From TrEMBL:
The chain crosses the membrane at residues 20-47. This is Cyclic nucleotide-binding domain-containing protein. It comes from Stephania japonica. InterPro entries: cNMP-bd_dom, cNMP-bd_dom_sf, RmlC-like_jellyroll. SUPFAM superfamilies: cAMP-binding domain-like (SSF51206), Voltage-gated potassium channels (SSF81324). Keywords: Ion channel, Ion transport, Ligand-gated ion channel, Membrane, Transmembrane, Transmembrane helix, Transport. One of its GO terms (cellular component) is membrane.
């Protein structure tokens, strides 16, 4: 209370120590109040500067979208992205702030900031922005089938995820929209991986396209691809089931097998329709 009132509630005294104490209290109150006002001014100035920067960016985007005559759906998506970016980043580009730091320090900062996001890796249906090659550790892949069933598999060192991106790069005619992930990948332990961004992968495929026609590369990609391995497992089960049905003969007929046969056909058809690996055919 004494500091907040600058010492005005102190009673006068003739003792020199109490006078000095009163002077110190009054000056401390003035100093703290001055610092508070200064911090508030600095904070308001920073907020107004960021807000002004965002307003200018939104104005430039609106002008550009109007000049290019973008449809209303795309304009809405751009505005939504800018609002999310502002709410998440507060108008700051964190990668721009740390770009001059040493590489090891940048890596540690990115790992600390994005650790929760890295644990999720890739979710089914999200755009695939990079291929991830596992060096150490393990991932678990889960893919939704019909009637709430989920196909899962474990990926270890040497495996990779995001092979939909390779098909996207080699597709002709080329489509700018990134492909959607066909499965969800989650880290089940501490994992080290090498990531290859979409633009870098596209550069490689454009300049070394003849390399991807190699039969050995096709077989390797099929073997280490989680999508191909899951698809192959379902079709092997389907083929084995059909073989057992043929070897039993027409005498033994179980009604339940009809439903099982139909379900396996659905799974096989689903995986056949979802294969994004046209370049591996």
């Amino acid at each position: 209370m004494t500091l907040s009132t600058f010492g005005n509630d102190l009673e006068p005294t003739s003792h020199w120590l109490e006078v000095i104490f009163s002077i110190i209290i009054v000056l401390s109150g003035l100093l703290l109040f001055t610092l508070l006002i200064g911090n508030i001014q600095v904070f308001l100035h920073a907020v107004m500067a960021k807000k002004r920067k965002m307003q200018l960016r939104c104005r430039d985007l609106e002008w550009w979208m109007k000049r290019r005559q973008l449809p209303s759906s795309l304009r809405h998506r751009v505005r939504h992205f800018e609002r999310q970016r502002w709410a998440t980043m507060g108008g700051e580009d964190e990668m721009e702030l740390i770009k001059d730091l040493p590489q090891g320090l940048r890596r540690d900062i990115k790992r600390y900031l994005c650790l929760d996001l890295i644990k999720k890796i890739i979710r089914e249906g999200d755009p695939v922005q990079r291929m991830i090659f596992i060096v150490h550790g393990h991932l678990q892949s889960s893919q939704k089938l019909s009637k709430g069933m989920v196909a899962t598999c474990k990926l270890g060192p040497g495996n990779f995820v995001g092979d939909e991106l390779l098909s996207w790069c080699l597709r002709r005619p080329f489509v700018d929209r990134l492909p959607a992930s066909s499965a969800t990948f989650v880290c089940i332990e501490a994992t080290e991986a090498f990531a290859l961004d979409a633009n870098h992968l596209r550069y490689i495929t454009d300049h070394f396209r003849y390399k991807f026609a190699n039969e050995k590369l096709k077989r390797t990609a099929r073997y280490y691809s989680s999508n191909w391995r899951t698809w192959a497992a379902v079709n092997i089960q389907f083929a084995w089931h059909r073989y057992k049905m043929r070897t039993r003969g027409p005498v033994i007929q179980v009604k339940v097998t009809g439903d099982s046969d139909r379900r396996l056909r659905q799974y096989a058809a689903m995986f056949l329709s979802l294969r994004p690996h046209d370049h591996l055919e």
